[in-house]
Predict the structure.
Amino acid sequence: MVYICISASYIQMPVQKLESVSVSVELNATSGNWSLDNSGRFTCLHSMQAAKTRLDGWFVRKEFLDLDPEDVPAVLDFLNQTGMFVNAPTGKEFTCPANPEELRQFQSLVRLYLISDPAEWRGMGKGFPGKLLHYMKWRGLPHFRMDWSGEAPTAVISAGFTFRALMATIQIDKWRQAKHRKCARPECETVFPIQGGRFNKIYCDHICGQYQAIRGYRKRNALKKKAGKLAGVEPNEIEGS
């Protein structure tokens, strides 16, 4: 008797290309009771009995990235509306994100994943705590169901906690080859989508672009004045040049 062993690594799975299939990501948010304790930690008691609300994943991602971690009331409002940030044990005190700084680090990693190629994800994260990188290494999409009620079928990806919804939107964006870029204004952390082939757009909005233009003008004017002083030219002459 001859036994034939086929290694799983040599089995090539068939790939099916789907046409006209929409994808949505929804967060099954549970209302929480988050607070900031005396030690500066965000805390919440997780309960599976809390009522659930369906939230659009991309809306949640935008709200999350727009948060100012130092604006505690706004952060608590976001956490209370979205529920658990990562998977948490039921009935126990939960502290993730643990504090404003950890929240800021999560935001930085989400932005980094948005503007990076998925092939680079494995090697990213130097300088970030191992706890955060552990969550970022999660690769699988949550379970999905098919919604046949529209003109085209929709694959509805359901996430039970915020971070999984965030990662699902990033993976779907990469799947549909969406491009994102960080705003060129140094102080701005905004990551924005490149839409309509506008690859020359480097600022997230008009305000940041105008701010940098004024900054550039003042810098050039200051250099002109400095050069004029060295050459013995009057400042008024430089202004009129």
Q: What stands out?
A: The beta strands are 22-30, 35-36, 42-45, 52-56, 93-94, 144-147, 154-159, 180-182, 191-193.
